Amino acid sequence: MGIRKLGYVGLNVTDVDAWTDLLGRTLGIGVTRVKFGTDEVALAELDEFKYRVALYPSTQDSPHELGWIVDSPRELDRLSQRLTDAGFAVEDGSPEEVELRGATRLRWFTDPVGYRVELAVGEAKARRDGPLHGTTGLGHFVLASPKLDELRELYESVLEFKLTDYRAPGLFFFRCNPTHHSIALAKADAPSIHHLEFEHGSIDDVGRAYDRAKSNGVPISISLGRHMNDKAISFYVRNPSGFHLEIGCGGIDVGEDWTPHDFGVSDVWGHHHADANPFASPKS
């Protein structure tokens, strides 16, 4: 398969300082500020690579780009042709974008929702001043949209993601490697990122992040719990851009013999929502 993993997410944000405070004080994630064009972009390190989340100063909060790591230049060319054949206009990233991403090659297209999706070859290692507080990388994101069918066609038929499982009436989980899912697609009236997940090494790392969130007054939007489908233990905070950050660990891997199925209820235990859950399990 050409796409190997979720590489990075770029966000337009109205309050970069609030984001860096959340990342640093509560999650222990180092942030480096670099010049990009006329702006200063904040790059968040979650693991040994250059960055996983980029924060672009903006007058609105919205996705800037969603970046996937591709196995090789040959696979990048193959996927680019599949996208072109499916009617997507594929463009090369600029030299400045390639350098910022830490990539060797970069291409991008616009998905049916209007978001910029990037395919990158290569990842640059980072230099870190201090230890991380348990983060091990970028896990997954959930994209909600009224164009669920078009997004499923893109990810499943064109980009060759595999359906892992689903829950009626409109929530689907897809993988591009053995990890249970790297993206989930949901039906909604308006497009948005519902949440972005940061992987942690252990339940103790998640618990310590939970304690820091409580101590720092960070709004916990979904309480500690265990998901039914991927078995991950996590909690969620409301980030300064208004959507959720999931802090989790322990998600399962699946093999080639996995059979997609409706997993029924959303959680084994916990995960109580502070606000209404748009993806609540249907009542029996």
Automatic annotation (TrEMBL):
**Does the keyword section mention Transcription regulation?**
no
- Name this polypeptide is given: Biphenyl-2,3-diol 1,2-dioxygenase
Taxonomic superkingdom: Bacteria
Residue ranges occupied by any VOC domain in the UniProt entry? 5-122, 137-250
Metal-binding recorded as keyword: yes
Single GO molecular-function term?
A: ferrous iron binding
The family note in this entry says: Belongs to the extradiol ring-cleavage dioxygenase family.
Which keywords fit this entry according to its UniProt record? Aromatic hydrocarbons catabolism, Dioxygenase, Iron, Metal-binding, Oxidoreductase
- Any matching Pfam family: Glyoxalase
Cofactor(s) recorded for this entry are: Fe(2+)
